């Protein structure tokens, strides 16, 4: 018998916990501040009413004006405090959500972050967060108004029980209808958002494939029509949303004015109120109308903010969890002898392809200072292996050992710090690394060695010229990687965009230079047989690794023996606090 899942209880509000308002002490403070502001406002109102009644009786009162001024000041001060407290609490909580995003990006699993879905999650998360932030000022004013209306309502109760009861009944009926309508109107915005996302996707296809669409009319027409349809759909939904909102707001204004008329025209005629009470009740009703309409106008905003908060909470729940707790004291080992992979397997789940793809089992020893070359046909798993070795992709089976000791989660951070890489999709940051471990002199030397020193001048403000050709960018990435001073350099098809000179220099010279700088080099290449420059050559065949017999043994001249691995005296970058 299948076990029944316990029903998942949906929280009453996704917004309040997200903006830090699920906390009882904060809520109490807010409530007390808000009620004080509301009570002071009410006292201002009562002093106005007392003055009005006095004038009607032909008396001039002394005290109301003083009370009015004092209560007005107190009301102003506490309203300001209420709105300020609510907004500062909410914005701090939202900043904390942004910090969570940051932790997810920097500490979440690399495999998950590479997933396109993850990028979309961060974009969408920031979008929802920004929407909530934009709605908050309105909502906090409305919350203040709600308290003002609540206190004024209690006062109305003392003046006219019938009127107050009638108002309550009307508020329940009109309120529930109004919230339902606001939710329906909000749903239009959700549909519009879907259209917008599709439209943005279309735009990015048009920009990314701009050369292709300029050359091919059929493809251009097809994409243009799809984007145009999304723009039209988005426009229609937004217009309907605007119309509905307009209708809702005018209904509310009409209902409030109509309700005031019942008090002024009907109640006195029915004998439910004396003429003497009329100015008092009327002034309370008029007083109530403003906060009520402010509050009601904010209902659609609240519904929208709840919706955004719900979506944000769902996204946060699916974002990649931190792989480890970052340590201030974690340091890459200053020296190492070998890196070993023992029975390592890594699998990409099926996703869009019919079958999952697995590399492994991989058994490999990389002595410090050696050169490891990886060859194999397209899609055989070379780049994947390059990300498994530094444990960017964490294997589901087997172990990676540093100096014979398995690298577990607690050493992951310092282990990864041994490596720098120029992957196929490498990224060059706008500025050079700032830490002391970055060797500026070596960087300049490498730029000259790679013949791009004139293209990457010293700018003084630290900004790098990244407007280079593909091959030149790869050379720049290599110069940075070398100057970063880490013991192991990973290069994924570095020569793929290089000219004939640099393709030749790579195998004849560059690898040797890296080795002479004390680096261990692990590289992928399609450039024929590179085994002559390698201590270890690997061939990947459909995810499986083979070590050709003639290259399995390390070269006697340059490679430290695996039995007595070389110990490199490397200054590794220290983690900055
Ligand atoms: N993110 C991913 N999710 C699922 N499968 C993937 C992913 N990335 C790569 N693959 C699959 O894994 C296999 C190995 O990919 P990999 O990039 O390691 O190959 P490669 O040997 O480096 O190829 P190339 O020489 O073309 O660069 C490919 O068949 C590819 O379809």
Automatic annotation (TrEMBL):
**Could you identify this protein by its name?**
ATP-binding cassette transporter
Residue numbers spanned by region Disordered = 549-577
Q: Which domain of life is it from?
A: Bacteria
Q: What membrane topology does the UniProt entry give?
A: Multi-pass membrane protein
Listed InterPro entries: AAA+_ATPase, ABC1_TM_sf, ABC_transporter-like_ATP-bd, ABC_transporter-like_CS, ABC_transpr_CbiO/EcfA_su, P-loop_NTPase, Type_1_exporter
Q: Sorted alphabetically, which Pfam families does this protein's record hold?
A: ABC_tran
Keyword Membrane applies:
yes
Q: Which UniProt keywords apply?
A: ATP-binding, Membrane, Nucleotide-binding, Transmembrane, Transmembrane helix, Transport
Q: Does the keyword GTP-binding apply?
A: no
Membrane-spanning parts? 26-45, 65-94, 135-156, 162-179, 248-266
Which residues are in the ABC transporter domain?
339-567
Subcellular location per UniProt equals: Cell membrane
State the Gene Ontology terms under molecular function.
ATP binding
Species of origin reads Azospirillum rugosum
Classify the main location. membrane
